[in-house]
Amino acid sequence: MNPLIAKSKPVSSALALAKVSSGPSWLGLLGAVVCVAWLLVALFGPWLAPHPVGEVVSDNIFEGFSLTHPFGTDYLGRDMLSRVLVGARFTVGLALVAALLASTFGTGCALLSVVSPKWLDEIISRIMDAFISIPSKMLALIMVSAFGSSVTLLICTAVISYIPGSFRVARSMAVNIEALEYVQVARTRGEGRLYVACMEILPNMLNPVLTDLGLRFGYIVLLLSGMSFLGLGVQPPDADLGSLVRENIGGLNQGALAIIIPALAIGTLTIGVNLLIDYLSSRRSRRTGGH
C-alpha cells in the first residue's frame, strides 16, 4: 500500500470526526434557542399580546401581513399574533406538565420494579405492556368520548398514554445498572431498596431519562395538537396551536397566515426539541466513547 495513502487515512478520519463532532453543536444551539424562545412565549405571551385574545379587531377576515397585525387576522377578524402568544401557553404548558408526570411515574415504576421481588416485577411489567399496546390517539378518543374534553382530562390522557414508554426505557437501563458491582456492594452493606433505587441506580440513569423526557414532550405536543385539530382538545374560548389550525381551516385555499402561522409554530417547537435532544444524545455518546 502506498505509504502516503496510509498516512492520509488517519488525517481524513480525524477531519471527518471533527466535522461530525462540531456539527451537532450548532444544531443543538439552534434547538436550545428555539426551545427557550417558546418557553418564554409560553410564560410571558399573554402579557405581550397586543390585543385581548377574543377581541375582533378587523372587519377583514384572513387578512395578510400588516404592521397592525403582523400575523394577520383569523376567520372572525381577531388578531392572530395575540392568539398565537396565548395559545402557546396551552400547547407548551400542557405538554410540559404531562411529559414531566409521565416520565416521573414511568421512572418511579421502573425503579420499583427492578428492586422488587420477581413476582411484583412481572405484574408491573405486564400492566405496562397492556397499556403500551393501546395507541395513544385511540386511548385519547375513548377517554374524551367517555368523560368529555377538559384540560385536566387531556393531561391525564397524555400521562397514561406515555407512562408505559417511559417505564420501558427506564427499566431497561435500571436492570443493567442494578447488576453492577457498586449496587451489589450497597446491598451487601445492608442498604434498603429505597436507598438503592434513589441513591445508586437513579443518579446513573438520569441523563438518558432526561433525554427520554424531551422525546415524550415532543410526542405529547403532537398528540394534543392532533386532538385539538379534531375538536377534542382545548375548547373555546381558549385555544392552543392545534385549535388555531382547525378553526382557520377555511383559509387553507387562500394560503392565509391564520393557518400557516400556528402550523409553523407546532413545527418549529417539535423540530427544536428534537434538535436539542439529538445534540444531548450525541454529546452523551461521545463522553462514553460511543457506547
TrEMBL record:
Record InterPro entries: BP-dependent_transpt_permease (IPR050366), MetI-like (IPR000515), MetI-like_sf (IPR035906)
Q: Cite a GO CC annotation.
A: DNA-directed RNA polymerase complex
User: What is its subcellular localisation?
Assistant: Cell membrane
Task: Please cite one Gene Ontology biological process associated with this protein.
Answer: transmembrane transport
Residue ranges annotated as transmembrane are 26-49, 90-117, 138-163, 217-235, 255-277
Q: What is its main location?
A: membrane
Please give, as recorded in its UniProt entry, the membrane topology of this protein: Multi-pass membrane protein
Q: Say which family it is in.
A: Belongs to the binding-protein-dependent transport system permease family.
Protein name according to UniProt: DNA-directed RNA polymerase subunit alpha
